[in-house]
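[scheduler] slot 2 assigned
[scheduler] job type: sequence-to-structure, two independent chains
[scheduler] chain ordering preserved from manifest
[runner] begin chain α
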Amino acid sequence: MRQQNTDKPMRMKTRKLTALLVIAAALLLALPAVAQSGTVTRHAFTAKFQKSKIVVSIWFEESDEGDLSGEIVYTSSKKQTPFRIFGSVVNLPGNQRVYSLSEYQADGSISGTFHIKRNLTDGRLTGKWSDMGFGSKQRTYTMRLATAAFPQGKGGTFAAPSELSGRYSYDRVDEVKGHLGGTVEINRLRGSTEKMEVNITKNDPNIAEFRECLFYRNGVFKGSLSDCGYSFTVRVFSDFVRVRTTSPTDRTYDCFGAFTTLDGFFLRVAD
């Protein structure tokens, strides 16, 4: 009697199962991730700086408040050190969306800025990167962009921190005013688990400093300046702080002057 070969059906079942697992994994990566402040949408790109040999890999997460957090890696360099990037998204007329981001060094200094524009109708991508030079000394490159798979093992930048207290900073240089950075310091108070001391300082003389003991509730500190009615939130994540104005825009003028606020992304830095 001829023996039936059962190996072939088993191989076919194994291949089908493997294919289904690959598809399922891809779908899971595409789903929005859960963050401390809600859900996030993930984006990833590769970019070639035109008229140069610079190639970068970019990924970032977009919170439901429109904040952006991720990394840029210069894949054309030998070290390929990842740099943290922060920014925000703006929707423009004509079904255009612009992601504006700043590149942070480990000490909080901003070394470059870039903008990625996406046409939501046809998916076309355009971008431009600039360093922090002035005038003719500033280097600016047009970016040739392509979408990429979100890197495995990355993300989770909007996660809750393991430790709230610490020093967070950013620094950018203005040709006229010099250094226009800022610092957020959060210090624990003895005998209190919710109330902490929050200090916000900025190097711009037009911006007031803030120092007060605030309660940390639902993942956020809420602060206000009673003399002018300005209010804001301080949200702490795994390695950065986001300060966001919550009062009407006219209140910022009463406190600081036009176009100045306490807003910003502050990277956790070593003491």
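[runner] end chain α
[runner] begin chain β
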Amino acid sequence: MKSCLTFALALILLAGCKKEKEETTTTVVTEAPAEAVPLSFEQKSYTKKSTICQKKCSYVDIKIEEALGVDGLADSINNAVFRVVRSIVYFGEKPTNAKNYDELTSKFIQSYDDLAKKYPEEAAWNWEAEIKATKEYQSENIINFKVNNYMFTGGAHGYEGNRSVIIDAKTGRTLKRSDILKDEKGFTSFAEKAFRKKFGIPAGKLINSGGMMFENNRFALPQNIFYTDNGLLLLYNPVEISSFADGAKKLEIPYSEAEPYLKIK
């Protein structure tokens, strides 16, 4: 009898321990970290037209590849491109203080409308503003936009050109020439030799002897340098170093030759 009671008591204690163990065991569920949203681009359009029309209606048409997906970075990239577009689309002595594309297009058309109402003869021709900003090159280090622009606000003809916007792919910061070239002086000397060879200007001759219009007859890098899949493109827009009729001047330098002068690619 005593042995039976001992055995029964042992069973009760064993069951209690098992239950206590089950109650105190905690299941830890580990959630997988959220995946980072990749940076992507989407084309947006911003268009506005004047209601004061003579021969034609004045208009502004802006097409932009806008960055999406990464908080902060996308905004920085978009703001960098917007600042360049804003520096182009305006009428007057200085760019507007527009905060976005809708405001920018409205201000441009408003400038025409105000002029047309006050001086109808001055606004006899319609104004035109066409902007197309496209992502031309992207690596893990940089994103290079080309801002093609055509502007006409009166005169003999409009003006078309291209702007290069080179952006740090990690921070969204606009990069200056000193950020991409580690030896600007050396690269300028190298580029001059390549330029002379392409346009047939002998080494012993002044750089403008070939019909160019470099300031002070000294070779200089263009205002715009583009990264491409094959190398650097040095682009001199119309009237930068030659007459309007001569158009743009281009010089392509393969990465195999440009790489010694580059900080990033």
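[runner] end chain β
[qc] chain β: The radius of gyration is 32 Å.
[scheduler] slot 2 released
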